[in-house]
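Dear colleagues,

As part of the handover before I leave the project, I'm documenting each prediction I ran so the next person doesn't have to rerun anything. This entry is a single chain, and its sequence is reproduced below.
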Amino acid sequence: MSPPYSATDFDEYTKSSQSVLLNIGNYLSELSDNFIQFQLFFACIGFVVNIFHLTVLTRKSMRTSSINVIMIGISICDLCNMVFMIKYDIVMFSENECSPPKTYTNEIFNLWISAAEDTTRRLITWFGFLLASLRFFIVKNSLKPKYHHFSKPLFATKVMISMTIISVIMSVFYYGRGCFKVVDEWAPPKHCDGFPLNFTTPVYEVVIENMALSEDSPALKTLSIVDGLLKLIASCTLPIFTYLLMIEHRNAKNSKLQFSTRSRSSRSDHTTKLVILMTITFIISESPFGIIYFVEGIVLNSPGIVHLTTDLIDLFGIFLAINSITSCLICLVVSSQYRRAVEKLIGMKKKNSNSRSSRVNVTSCAVIGKSEMKI
């Protein structure tokens, strides 16, 4: 359960504004708590689907283009986020007022889990932006040989590694600012069973001793605003690249690029359609987060608003789980290369080959029969 809101969370606002914000906050808190069971359900499905999706994408036949490599990165981030989401939801279900506070080791572990989640959440937005922008650039310059290296897996790998390093540095800076110290002693309520007499355990909280790295410091405010702005820009430009991709796709289809074979052109069309559909799902699932993270970066000194944004992030988390499932479905429907990899993975190719050879034999027999009749 999320902690309840209080008037002290909104000290900087007037009484009437506090009342409105309290009602909104408590409603969002109750709504996000009710959504946890649905979120856990979709997260479990997303975990299984993404294991299968990642297994297909990492096959040798799929690691042939920069777009597929980016999709591997997105799938890895989705899989990590499903694990984090399942862990968070299970903890939320299992904890109650008789649950003791976490030990020092657990607090350290959870802190770095949060840092990893922050890193992968940021990377999903960045990789989605990279997917759409790179595909647009490739289609736009498909007849210029000097730009062909942008479609190679190595190029995407280098860009993604650079993005990952930047994202890790940002998360480490934010989550590595303080240290855990004992701030209180916890004793179980009288109605809780299973504890020794006079049992107490320390309560740990992150304490930031260096004021230059506190929530109100210019360095942290700048980092938070830049982080939120990057997420917002990436989310807001996705519709633009989707529109531009659709235009380029239509132009390429009308012109029937004379330097490409029909099969290659068809393969390129399928890749562009795949990116367009995936970008649309990213717009639906990621745009709210871009706005929320940007607002969160601006209002760091308002605990109530930060609490509100946290509840909104929890509430929209279900869309992340659903989006992680749709990526695999889109690939299955649109990409013939993906379907062939799936068939080969589950052993359907051999059956298809046998059926084709049987058809060839039947056809051959029919031809021989007709020849004999003519003789």
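The first strand starts at residue 179 and ends at 186. The CA atoms of residues 205 and 354 lie 65 Å apart.

All the best with the project,
I.
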